[in-house]
Amino acid sequence: MNLSFGLYLILNTVAVLLVAPLFVSIIKKVKARAQGRSGQSVFQIYFTLAKLLKKETVYSSHSSWVMRLTPYVSIAAMLVAALFVPLVFVPEPVGGIGNIILLLYLLALARFFMALAGLDAGSPFGGMGSSREMSISAIIEPTTIIVFAALVFVFKSLNVFDMFAASAAAGAPSTPTLILLAISLFIILVVETSRIPVDNPETHLELTMIHEGMILEQSGKNLALMELSAAVKLTLLMALLLNLIVPFGLTTTLAIGTIAVAAVLFVLKVTVLAGIIGLFESSMAKMRFFRLPSLFAMAFFFSTLIIIIEVFA
Is residue 138 a contact partner of residue 112, using CB atoms and an 8 Å limit? Predict the structure, then answer.
């Protein structure tokens, strides 16, 4: 492993841990403003996570090792996935790091353990949330595979690093297929992070909650890890979308000046996208559960169309 890749591993992991909670707060702030409220400070989530880390962890008498292990599996899977998605600097790929198929498996691993933890506590709300999550997963995962396959066909590579390097070299989107790809990736982002219109991350109402139902029994540092892993997942998917479609600032040169500029541009880009997500959620209501496949079908159709175009072009 060369020095630049070693530095990338450290910098990318630290960066995603530092900025992930901020982008979640920006979405909440935008939604509050859209609803006529001032909302909490964008830094409040950092204080909340710090407070949770100091609190006692309480387990249900019905829970097993699954409940205790899930927060660590979830955050570990997201931090390993963070190595597959460069935020500001794209190194030369080493080994299997950057393989988009492994990235999919890491996302699926975290979701699988979260669903198990929802069932493990014996809570009816947790079981309902896990059931809904797996029902959605059965539909969205084939769509996610097709969307990622479209990425592979467009960029002619299975490695995310190669995709980002090609995108950075090309600059602005040059083909209509990238616009369709951006729409598909945005839908995957909304579904995978359990946001409106698929789920409402701000509610604990048993009739609507999916993600919140699965982590309802978590407490203390375990809850902090679950919240942090969800924030990291959101950041990684936003970085995947932006650095492929709008790669301005993404650099392949390891230098302090270029890294600093790229970091500032990345934060600005993701802040804008977080604002768009906040406005998008504020302008829509949560969809009925049985209408969700129509949303997934849009991403599936666009991605299939992209693959057909790339194959026969």
Answer: no
Which residues are 99's β-sheet partners? 159
CA distance 176 to 193: 26
Spatial CA neighbour of 157 closest among 237, 101, 104: 101
Name the nearest CA neighbour of 277 among 42, 36, 25. 25
Residue 49 Cα to chain centre, angstroms: 19
Confidence of residue 1 (pLDDT cuts 50, 70, 90): low
pLDDT at 238: 95
**Residue 243: count of CB within 10 angstroms of its CB:** 25
Given pLDDT bands bounded at 50, 70 and 90, which one contains residue 204? low
- Arithmetic mean of pLDDT, 144-159: 92
How far lies 64's CA from each of 15, 69, 205, in Å? 33, 9, 26
User: Is the pTM of the predicted complex or chain greater than 0.90?
Assistant: yes
Could you give the CA distance from residue 303 to residue 179 in angstroms, rounded to a whole number? Answer: 11
Helices (H), 35-123: 44-54, 65-82, 100-120
Contacts of 223 by beta carbon, 8 Å cutoff, 6+ apart: 52, 71, 215
Q: By C-alpha distance, which of 207, 190, 221, 208 is closest to 286?
A: 208
Nearest of 172, 188, 175 to residue 247 by alpha carbon = 172
Q: Is the pLDDT score of 299 beyond 70?
A: yes
Contact yes or no for 286/208 (Cβ under 8 A): yes
Q: What per-residue confidence (pLDDT) applies to 172?
A: 61
